[in-house]
Design a protein that fits this description.
The structure is a homodimer. Chain A is an alpha/beta fold and about 240 residues long. Chain A contains 9 helices and 11 strands. At the A-B interface, α4, α5, α6, β4 and β5 of A face α4, α5, α6, β4 and β5 of B.
Chain lengths: ~240, ~240
C-alpha cells in the first residue's frame, strides 16, 4: 500500500469495498473510520452507488480496491455513477489514488518478467466478449509484448483459459517461461515458473484460479536461478 | 511510494540511483543510509554494476527507480549483471520491490482512462528498433486496448512521435481522448486532456517531452467534467 493510500484511508469518514479487500486493510486504519460498508463480490454497482450516495450526503468516502483503480477496477464506474446522478466529480472533490497493479506485485515475485513493452489482458468474458479477448491475444502474442493475464480461470470459464493457452502457443515456443502467481500477498500464496507448453494442464490444479495472475514472457525471456528475466536490451548496446 | 519501498530504503546501507531519482527521496530516508551513489542519465549499466559490486562486498544495497522496477527499469539489468559476475540472486537475497508505474500514477491524474485491457509502449528506439515499435502500435491500436505511451518525444526522436500519432490515427477517430501528463509529481507538472487529432502538433510544445506519459483512450473513452472515462462495461450488464 502506498503512503498516500494509507493517508487517504485514515482521513476517510466512510470506507466502502468488497468484503475481502476491507479485511485486508490494517486494523488501525479501519478503526479510524466512522463507518465501514462492505458487500460480497458481484455487488460492484450497488456498492459503488452506495459510496457515491454517501459522498453526495456530505461524507468523505473512500472506495477501496486491491491493486490500482484503473486496472479492472472501479475508478471509471465511480465516475459513471456520479455522472448518472447529475452530480460532478469536481463538486465531490473526486480523486483517484493510484496503486500497485497485480501485474507489478506478481511480476516482482518472479524477478523481472515484464520490463519491456507489456500488456494486461483479462480472460473474464463477463464484461468483454470472448471473441474480442481472443483477437487481442492473437494481436499481442504475435508481437514482442510480455503479457500479464488477469482472471485466468474460473469454473464457469474453463474454456477461456484453454483457448488462451492455445492461442499463445500458436505464436510462442512451448518453452516460453510463464510466471504463475496465486493469491499474491494472501495466506495461500503460491509462486511457480512453468513453461507455456504445460500451462493448459495446470488449469486442473489449485495453482490457477481467479486469484492467479500469469506473466507470459516474450521470445527473449529466460529463467535463471529461480528468476524470470526479460532482457531490456542493454547487452546489445554496451559491453559489461 | 509504498510503505514497503520506504521500509526497504530505510534498511539499506547503500542507495544507488539516477541523480534525479535520488533527489526525489525524502531526506529522512537518504540520511539513514551509510552511502548514496548517484550518476546522471545513461549510466544505467555502470551504475547497476557498481550496485551489484557493493552487494557482493557484503553491503545491503537498494537500487532506486521512479516507478516499478519491471516497467522500462533496472530489475532485469540487475539480474543480468549478477549472472554475468558468476554470482546468484539467491546468495544476494535479491528481491524486486514493486511500485506504482507511471501509467497508473499519470492515469489517476486524468480520472479513469485505462480501466480495461491496456498496453504500455515506449517510443524510445534506443533499445528497441523503431520498426518493432511501429508494428506493435498497429497491432494494439487496431484492437480495443487503451495505450499508455512512455518516452513519447525527445529532440533526437521527434519523428518517432509523429509516426506514432499517424499510426494511432489510422485506427482511431481524431476525437479520441488522450491524457497528456507532463512531469508527474514534479514542480513542472502539467496535465491536459486533448484529442488524438491535435496530438502531433503538441510535439512542438513544452507539454510533450521525455518526462511526459500519454494515455490514449479506446473507442469508448469519453471526457466528462475534466475526467477521462473508459467504461468498464457494467452499464451493459446492469441498470443503474
Amino acid at each position: 500500500m502506498t503512503q498516500r493510500a494509507r493517508a487517504t484511508l485514515l482521513e476517510a469518514e466512510h470506507i466502502v469495498g468488497y468484503t475481502t479487500y476491507i479485511d485486508l486493510i490494517p486494523d488501525d486504519v479501519t478503526e479510524a473510520a466512522d463507518e465501514l460498508y462492505d458487500t460480497p463480490m458481484c455487488g460492484e454497482v450497488s456498492r459503488t452507488e452506495e459510496a457515491v450516495d454517501r459522498a453526495l450526503a456530505g461524507n468523505d468516502v473512500a472506495i477501496v480496491g486491491s491493486g490500482d483503480p484503473n486496472v479492472y477496477a472501479l475508478g471509471g464506474l465511480a465516475l459513471e455513477i456520479i455522472e448518472s446522478k447529475g452530480a460532478t466529480a469536481s463538486a465531490l472533490d473526486f480523486e483517484v489514488v493510484p496503486g500497485v497493479p497485480a501485474a507489478q506485485s506478481c511480476a516482482a515475485r518472479v524477478g523481472a518478467p515484464l520490463v519491456n513493452d507489456s500488456v494486461s489482458i483479462s480472460l473474464s468474458d463477463h464484461l468483454t466478449p470472448m471473441a474480442d479477448i481472443e483477437s487481442r491475444l492473437h494481436a499481442v502474442a504475435a508481437e514482442g509484448f510480455t503479457i500479464a493475464i488477469y482472471n485466468p480461470w474460473s469454473r464457469k470459464r474453463r474454456e477461456n483459459f484453454e483457448t488462451a493457452c492455445e492461442i499463445l502457443l500458436e505464436h510462442r515456443p512451448a518453452d516460453t517461461p510463464v510466471g504463475v502467481v496465486h493469491g499474491a500477498g494472501r495466506d495461500d500464496e503460491a509462486v511457480e515458473i512453468v513453461e507455456l507448453g504445460e500451462l493448459k494442464s495446470l488449469g486442473e490444479t489449485d495453482l490457477i484460479d481467479m486469484t492467479t495472475t500469469l506473466l507470459v514472457g516474450n521470445e527473449e525471456t529466460y529463467v535463471w536461478d529461480g528468476q524470470m528475466i526479460t532482457p531490456r536490451g542493454y547487452e546489445s548496446k554496451y559491453d559489461y
